[in-house]
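Dear Dr. H.,

I hope your travels went smoothly. While you were away I took the liberty of generating a structure for the chain from your last submission, since the lab meeting agenda had it listed for discussion. I wanted you to have the full record in hand beforehand rather than looking at slides cold. The sequence, exactly as received, is reproduced here:
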Amino acid sequence: MTDSKNINNPVGQGGGQRKRLSRAERQNNGPHRNLDRKNAADQKAELVRKMREKAAAAENTDQS
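The corresponding predicted structure, in token form, is as follows:
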């Protein structure tokens, strides 16, 4: 008889092939995701700052 089919014990997946997920991770908002989101926001803010600096520099050279 096969085991129950749920996310932590899927039929057809042998033992240990899939990481067990906590309830929060299954809902896609575990603690790891919060850090990922913060890092992504930091990277985006840095990119936007660099782009604005480039645009300002280009605008200053055009006016000269």
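Two observations you may find useful: The helical segments are 23-26, 31-63. The CA atoms of residues 51 and 57 lie 10 Å apart.

With kind regards,
E. W.
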